Amino acid sequence: MTLTCIEADLIALANPGIKPPLALELLHPWLPRHRYTGSVDKNFEAAKAIEKRYGRHFVTPAAYCDQKWNSVCNTVRLKTDMDARFYTAWHLPVQDCYILEENRPDRRVLALDFNAMYPSCMQQEFPKPSKIRHVKYDREVVAGEHLPMGLYRCTLEGPKSDFITKFNPFRAFFAGRHLRAALTKGLSVDLNEFEIAFYHRHFDRIFVVDAVVSDQFISHPLAREARRSFARRAHFDSNNNKALADREKFLSTLLASCTHRPDRMDRMFETHALAEDFLQSHFGISADADDPAGLSAAWLQGRKAFTVTETEGGVRCETPDATSRRACFMFNQRIVARGRTILLKMMEKILTIAPDVELCYANVDSIHFSFPANFQSAVMDNLRTGLSDKMGGYKIETMASGGLWLEPGRYWLYSDDIMKFRNRSVRHSGHVFKDHSFHVVSRKIGDLHVPIRFRIGMARSMTDTRSIEFDSSTGLERHHLAEVEDGASPTEVLRVLEQNRKHHIPRRLQAFRKLALSF
Questions:
Q1: How many helices (H) and strands (E) does the chain have?
Q2: 375 phi and psi angles, rounded to 5 deg
Q3: Is residue 363 a contact partner of residue 409, using CB atoms and an 8 Å limit?
Q4: What is the DSSP secondary-structure string of 357-400?
Q5: Sequence-distant contacts of 381-385: CB under 8 A, at least 24 apart
Q6: CB 471 within 8 Å of CB 102
Q7: What local confidence, expressed as pLDDT, does residue 307 receive?
């Protein structure tokens, strides 16, 4: 075992055929960051020092989640098969960029971050898993109507607010990518009762087909543990122990999702058609009838946790088991849905706190927005009521004069210097404008481990789902997520993605390089 990934990679390359070592910084991402040095002795001493100081705090995510799942089982001893509806429901947080760059001299950029978003959502009530029942509605529900706690299969029609049109959070899955779902012809989606109450403000009509609901509710079995973890994190922060504070933050993320780890199913089918019928009936996954040749297989292959492979005996489907006894999907689905609704409500509020506010970026529990500099006092006064170090409150991460947002997980906020940045998939080791890194993966052939070194550059790892459109009224360049309409031709969607790859990824990289040169 090594301390850094770089050292593990070098050992793997120098010893082909041998199983490569593990890296502590990957196993335990909360550890203090250490840079690789050219001295083997120094690296080894650093690894020993880290193990001596933090070794008793090491725990693998799998072991931690197994332990917490046992705690859940002690509280929830029975669930119904209707829990599977929560597995196939909309399960994405808000993750979007709206503006490429804000660098107007009379503006300020503010980054807000919620404290322990998901642990705070765990403090809400949940339907009792053993009492979930199926209800047929087949009618429109009206604003203010009391709905039992549960999950509703809805059709949303008639978007009526600028907010929902401009910041549409709904996604459609296509060829391994999540694209923007069109709102023009009505949208079918599974929503919790609190989400329906929110979307009534933004749609003319919400028609409910059916629902799985419960008249009884319970607290999350790990809600108390989430509060304890947050208290420990606050204690470590107050004592300037960043590593253990980061550890509690990391474990709290696992805590919120540990009920969402299903067993696997392995099924064989004679033809692709039978395999697709199975995926449609069990998971609601389907490919369009007019797909170009081979696209259906690629579409299915891209779906997370689903693999479809051809074998001599037919078509093999490996899928999650939606009725698994090793999971209770309702908890995690409602936590993510709560967080998504909280963020959307906050985005609505931010747009009203000053004139000419621009939302720039939103990602799970953070929001970046810009506003006229002469309204800074008014903005701070409006935000002051929610500013808090408590769980569920929010804090101001950064106030900057400009920002660049390439995609979720890739941004730079700056004034005279870079104040805050993220650059996912690139091992930057603190290098603000590093645009590539090298990784080594090990492929096992028989008993041999074959190391393969490859370069990950920003150009190859950036998504092709976004285009850039110039807004002449503001002078800003705005992100536009590729949109999928009901009945859209897959060929047309693929054409749009290819256009984005050829023209709009280079445009975003150009903005990145221009910013790098200015610093």
A1: 17, 25
A2: -105, 15
A3: yes
A4: -EEEEEETTEEEEEEEGGGHHHHHHHHGGGB-SSTT-EEEEEEE
A5: 382/353, 382/354, 383/112, 383/353
A6: no
A7: 80
Angstrom distance (rounded) from CA 481 to CA 1: 42
Q: Please state, in angstroms and rounded to a whole number, the distance separating the CA atoms of residues 20 and 449.
A: 8
Query: In the prediction, which pLDDT does 428 show?
Result: 80
The residue to which tokens 């009505």 are assigned:
186
Contact between 451 and 20 under an 8 Å Cβ cutoff? The reply is yes
First to last CA, the chain: 37
DSSP-derived secondary structure letter, 130: G
Neighbours of 430 (CB within 10 A): 8
Beta bridge partners of 266: 318
Strands of 142-284 (E only): list them.
149-159, 171-174, 177-181, 187-192, 203-214, 217-219, 264-269
Positive/negative CA dihedral, 324, 328, 334, 339 = negative
* DSSP code per residue over 7-40: HHHHHHHHSTBSPPPPBHHHH-TTSPP----S-H
Residues 6+ apart with CB under 8 A from 518: none
User: Per-residue b/e over 446-482, b at no fewer than 16 CB within 10 Å?
Assistant: eeebebeeeeeebeeebbbbbbbeeeeeeebbbbebb
User: How far apart, in whole angstroms, are the C-alpha atoms of residue 291 and residue 177?
Assistant: 16
Q: Which residue matches tokens 């055929």?
A: 17
Distances (CA, A) of 459 to 99, 503, 510: 19, 12, 11
Torsion 175-177-182-183 (CA) sign: positive
How far is it, in rounded angstroms, from Cα 258 to Cα 262?
10
d(CA 380, CA 351): 14
Per-residue pLDDT at 28 exceeds 90: yes
Q: Are strands 483-484 and 177-181 parallel, antiparallel or unpaired?
A: parallel
Cβ 176 vs Cβ 100: under 8 Å: no
∠ Cα 91 97 102 (to 5°): 160
276 half-sphere exposure, CB direction, 13 A CA radius? 14
Quote the Cα angle for 360-358-430, to 5°: 30
Question: Tokens 């693929």 — which residue?
Answer: 494
Q: What is the pLDDT of residues 374-398, one digit of tens each?
A: 999 999 999 998 899 999 999 999 9
Per-residue pLDDT, averaged over 42-70, amounts to 95
Q: What are phi and psi of 111, to 5 degrees?
A: -110, 120
Specify the residue for token string 């990950």. 456
Tell me if residue 54 falls in helix, strand or coil.
helix
Q: How confident is the model at residue 293 (pLDDT cuts 50, 70, 90)?
A: very low
Cα angle: 492, vertex 494, 499; to 5 degrees: 95
Task: For residue 307, give Cα distances in angstroms to 177, 269, 315, 472.
Answer: 15, 13, 10, 45
For residue 32, which of 225, 344, 247, 216 has the smallest C-alpha distance? 247
Asked if 361 contacts 97 with a C-beta cutoff of 8 angstroms, the reply is yes
